[in-house]
Amino acid sequence: MHSICFQATGVPRSNYIFDSCSPALAISKPINLRFCGLRKEAFGFSGLTHSSSGRVRFSSRGHSKKVSASAESNGSPPKSFDYDLIIIGAGVGGHGAALHAVEKGLKTAIIEGDVVGGTCVNRGCVPSKALLAVSGKMRELQSEHHMKALGLQVSAAGYDRQGVADHANNLASKIRSNLTNSMKALGVDILTGVGTIVGPQKVKYGKVGFPDNIVTAKNIIIATGSVPFVPKGIEVDGKTVITSDHALKLESVPDWIAIVGSGYIGLEFSDVYTALGSEVTFIEALDQLMPGFDPEIGKLAQRVLINPRKIDYHTGVFATKITPAKDGKPVIIELIDAKTKEPKDTLEVDAALIATGRAPFTNGLGLENVNVVTQRGFVPVDERMQVIDTNGNLVPHLYCIGDANGKMMLAHAASAQGISVVEQVTGRDHVLNHLSIPAACFTHPEISMVGLTEPQAREKAQKEGFEVGVAKTSFKANTKALAENEGEGLAKLIYRPDNGEILGVHIFGLHAADLIHEASNAIALGTRIQDIKFAVHAHPTLSEVLDELFKSAKVKAAALSHGPVSEPVAV
């Protein structure tokens, strides 16, 4: 897998990772989350305002790497351009970059070979949230204890599978249409076809069986995203052995489904399937479920999301072979020990969902024409998302954002990276702080996080010589959570007592995905705990969970007179 660093780590997407040198290789290390970061235009709102995502550092210093001249051998750059900016890929990252480019006055085109919206809108975060909305309602209606506590009486809850599937599909269609219309209304040219780089500042695109078109641009952004990764030995038939792409269509609700991988994709689908009546078996390569989450949060989440539900699990095992159901036989899963590689068990289930992460979709981009070679499928980039060639030099005017570069596999991270690139090409140096980018898992209750986990923070502290403080608050002490009869939850703050710097925040509980942004914005702006303690929160609201969390932190007196923790923010 690509190297894990503090700037790029998050909660794992799965326990497997695509390796371009050995496409079938499964490596038991976590990779990152991907969630939706749609701008408001996706929901039919007009008018553009810009706010920076993540910490911005303004600097007059130039790039540290040399600019590559190797691309010149593939043809000279054009003297005039069709566009100021061409974006290859119309997912959330490409859409965010395109809208910001128009806002900055750039003539912009976006090339899309499939459908506008990419994975997030069509096969990811958008339809999955529709399914999770249904599972949340079902859980509430099915909980006799919960309803009785509120004084409510509800008859047996049921659902129409096709109606649920239609809800997810209709939502994706609506958002896709709004994305398309928003770009067209703002003057972004949508070019249909597969985009390929043919030389410096030059791209061809076209459909199979039709002549290619060649367009030029002063700058090019690669935003091609990712696809589901299926390890060697697993046969996907789209019916009984499926990926998340198939599962989101909800063509069936099996009685018993195995989910390979207990990262956020697996967790979310376990929430959906168990709410709709399925029994679930997790297959996890590492020794514990939910690897990569803060361990304390993961332990609580397992107690609430796994143990009381119709879920069992096998940890420390690989699924080396999965055969689809056929001829009256069930899906057969062969397991081996992850360490010894000895046969461990054989499972027979009704269906299997492969939630083993995603692989970058970068084949056929023509990167060889600008002397670039991918690393395990990912396009190498620097901290400003500028592409790096085989000699370690920066390729002029070529950038890569989102899942294709592997820095942080989150849809809203892709959008933030795209906005950062547009800032750079319009004359403002901009470096995105990935530690300020939040992530969330939309189970019931939700999990959210930003920054470092406690083990990561302690490792960093040991290397750099500072202490780590930890503060916690419970949802059981929050009036709003108790009014909702949803007191199960915990918020955790990881910080530096010597200067009040926020290192990480992790939340498990009601609306955790919404609550995390106060913490992520504080990290982005360099706000210290001793300052944010004075922020006022409406009462009674869930936001008071964060209020109490910051107030409970113990910052040393000497830090109170210190200046800002981080560099000033450029406005």
Automatic annotation (TrEMBL):
SUPFAM superfamilies linked: FAD/NAD(P)-binding domain, FAD/NAD-linked reductases, dimerisation (C-terminal) domain
Protein residues bound to NAD(+): G261, S262, G263, Y264, I265, G266, L267, E268, E284, G357
UniProt catalytic activity: N(6)-[(R)-dihydrolipoyl]-L-lysyl-[protein] + NAD(+) = N(6)-[(R)-lipoyl]-L-lysyl-[protein] + NADH + H(+)
Tree of life domain: Eukaryota
Cell location: Plastid, Chloroplast stroma
Obligatory cofactor(s): FAD
SS bonds (residue pairs): C120-C125
Cofactor note as given: Binds 1 FAD per subunit.
Residues that, per the record, bind FAD: K129, G195, T224, G225, S226, D403, M409, L410, A411, H412
Stored InterPro entries: Class-I_Pyr_Nuc-Dis_Oxidored, FAD/NAD-bd_sf, FAD/NAD-binding_dom, FAD/NAD-linked_Rdtase_dimer_sf, Pyr_nuc-diS_OxRdtase, Pyr_nucl-diS_OxRdtase_dimer, Pyr_OxRdtase_I_AS
Residues annotated as domain FAD/NAD(P)-binding: 83-418
Top-level class of the enzyme under EC nomenclature: oxidoreductase
Keyword check for Flavoprotein: yes
KW Transcription (keyword) present: no
Molecular functions per Gene Ontology: dihydrolipoyl dehydrogenase (NADH) activity; flavin adenine dinucleotide binding
Keywords attached to this entry: Chloroplast, Disulfide bond, FAD, Flavoprotein, NAD, Nucleotide-binding, Oxidoreductase, Plastid, Redox-active center, Transit peptide
Active site, per annotation: H539 (proton acceptor)
GO CC terms in record: chloroplast stroma; mitochondrion; oxoglutarate dehydrogenase complex
Family, as annotated: Belongs to the class-I pyridine nucleotide-disulfide oxidoreductase family.
Function statement: Lipoamide dehydrogenase is a component of the plastidial pyruvate dehydrogenase complex (PDC).
Subunit composition and interactions: Homodimer. Part of the plastidial pyruvate dehydrogenase complex (PDC) containing multiple copies of three enzymatic components: pyruvate dehydrogenase (E1), dihydrolipoamide acetyltransferase (E2) and lipoamide dehydrogenase (E3).
Xref: PANTHER family: DIHYDROLIPOYL DEHYDROGENASE, MITOCHONDRIAL, DISULFIDE OXIDOREDUCTASE
Name assigned to this protein: dihydrolipoyl dehydrogenase
Organism the protein comes from: Gossypium gossypioides
UniProt lineage: Eukaryota, Viridiplantae, Streptophyta, Embryophyta, Tracheophyta
